[in-house]
C-alpha cells in the first residue's frame, strides 16, 4: 500500500509506500525531500492541488503579515510542522495575496486554522491557538501509518 503525497517544491503527485520511512521520501520529479519540517506557503491553485490530491491531512494557517496574532501564531505553526510532519502537511495561505480563497472559506478573522482531509474541512478554529490544539488535530486526523 502507498499514500499519495504532493511535493511542496514542484507540486508533483507522488506515491509513497507506507512501509517506507516518509521522512526519507523524495519527490520523483524534482528529487527534493517530500517533508522538510516547515510550513509551505501556497497560492490558491497550489492549495487546491494539495487538498484534492493529498493522502494525508492538510493543516492550514490563513494569515496576513500585518496581523499581530498571526505573527504570534507563526512560530507555533513552524514548531508544529517540525514536530508533526509527515503525519500531516502544514501550509500557510496569505489572505491578502489569496483573497478569493479566504472568501471561499468564509474567513472573517485571522489567524484561521483549518484541517482538510480527503478534500473536506474536518476541523477549524479562528484566532491564536497553542501547539496542543495542532497536536490533537494530528492525533485525531493524522496519517497513522506515517507516525
TrEMBL record:
Positions of the Thioredoxin domain: 17-143
Any Pfam family hit: Thioredoxin
Gene Ontology molecular functions: metal ion binding; protein-disulfide reductase activity
InterPro entries, alphabetized: Thio2_N, Thioredoxin, Thioredoxin-like_sf, Thioredoxin_CS, Thioredoxin_domain
Organism field: Phenylobacterium glaciei
UniProtKB keywords: Disulfide bond, Electron transport, Metal-binding, Redox-active center, Transport
Listed GO biological process terms: cell redox homeostasis
Domain of life, source organism: Bacteria
Similarity comment: family membership: Belongs to the thioredoxin family.
Protein name: Thioredoxin
Record's GO cellular component terms: cytosol
